[in-house]
Write a structure and sequence with these properties.
- It is built from 6 helices and 5 strands, in the order E-H-E-H-E-H-E-H-E-H-H.
- It is α/β, with parallel strands linked by helices and 159 residues long.
- The model has no long low-confidence stretch (mean pLDDT 95).
- It binds 4'-phosphopantetheine (PNS).
Length: 159
Amino acid sequence: MRRVVCPGSFDPATNGHLDIISRAASLHDEVVVVVGANLAKEGLFTVDERLDMLREVTSGLPNVGVDKFTGLLVDFCRAHQVSAIVKGLRAVSDFEYEMEMAQMNYRLAGVETLFMTANPLYSFLRSSLVKEIAKYGGDVASLVPQPVYEQLRARLAQS
Ligand code: PNS
């Protein structure tokens, strides 16, 4: 049984995240999408809102679960018998930061990190850009799953 995690802040999940999650799910027995709760205060959405959206958008993937973690990711991995961390790499600019985390996580707990290259359709996509575009009235409908789009519109209409 090979269980892996797809960690992130997911504020909110984008089509790029969903692409990596579904491709990871086709390669492993179980994928747990984990929201890093340390980062919650800075977000547009609460951790619980992010979890709800992730559950909804991954509901068609039977071997994908959703959870949150606080503290170190490797501690979550150890406690949940996770054999590897799966991360998407969009461009060379992601590489340095991701390699640093991967090497540190291996050093801390021997947890491996597997990198998947982003679908070129989504290589420019990140949550912070989506939020900025949506905030100023740009169209993000093709960048995020439909339930996320609706939540984004509702949240930004309030502000
Ligand atoms: O969406 P992000 O910003 O790429 O997510 C980063 C995240 C949450 C995966 C990363 O910051 C993380 O793992 N944080 C948990 C704290 C931790 O384990 N830090 C040590 C990393 S070597």
